[in-house]
Amino acid sequence: MLATIFDQWSQSSKKVLFLFNMATGHFDYLSPSLTTLWGIKREQVLHDPKQLITAIDQDDQEAVTLRYEKVRQGISIEIEFNISLPENQQKQVKVEAQPILDDNHVITHLMGQAEDVTLQAQYREYLMEFSRKKNNTLHIVAHDLQGPLAIMKSVASLLDADHAEHRYEELTNYTQIINKAYHDCTQLIHEVLLDEHIHSVSTPVRRNRFDVVNKVRQTASTFIKSQVVKIPIHIESPEEKIMVELDEVKFTQIINNLITNSIKYTPPKGEITISLVSEGANLLLTHADTGIGIPVELQPYLFDKYNSKARRLGLNGEKSNGIGLSIIKDLVELQGGKIEVKSEENQGTTFYLTFPLLT
What's phi and psi for 266, nearest 5 deg? Predict the structure, then answer.
């Protein structure tokens, strides 16, 4: 009678219903749908229940064993784990089980159900990834807008000072700088919202051919003209022009972030030097400053956006959210490049970037 009830129930459900006899170590009932879920014939499992264990991923077997011990102690359990099927197929399975006690409060059976939750697990992972993308996008926008906004603030201060003294000869230059900073802000927002600038093979790289030496000079010039930076920025290259095929917007973000980072940690008497040279099929870009350097114990965490150990206040008390260098690394690697850092405390910091010239 019990088997008939279970059979009728299981026919209307994809879930696998089971009743496990603790005394015999075998199933008193097991839904026929087990074969579809587990990839093992029901008759084989009825004969030898241990065959179920062999399909469970090695990494999950310990957790499953611990849950089994709990239910043997009279505790209802719920667990999700992965199983491996023929032809390298993977499934995520959810099992719920509870103990059945007799009149003497002795556990005689385990009753429960198992179901395929692979799609639900994938959907949860999608939601988690979407949340990570959203958070990453907000972090990048918040961080990378600081440079252009600092330039606008500096120019506004210069305008106030000149207006107070009725000097207007630099007005055209100031408006050009503000327009350039505004353009950088809007372009950044557009790019981030479009691409989400995350670790993803689907993030597009819009390559175009441009002179990288001129691009670095233009980017540094914006900082110098706005007087955001009080220290000299030197651009050095043995070649007057180096043509590359990179994403111009992402490359500009890299240079902006490197300069902004150096400004934070370099005293007024220091300097920044950016060197560019083509070597074989690669562009070698070196960004060096004579700032306070990075303590050795912090260097392993520089490019880790999920670790706050490398966060430090700037020399003027500027707050750091700790993701600037991780953004740089993401943008470099997204374009097929590499980045390394060498630094000694009170001796400055040098970043070494390598990009392919052509793709």
Answer: -120, 125
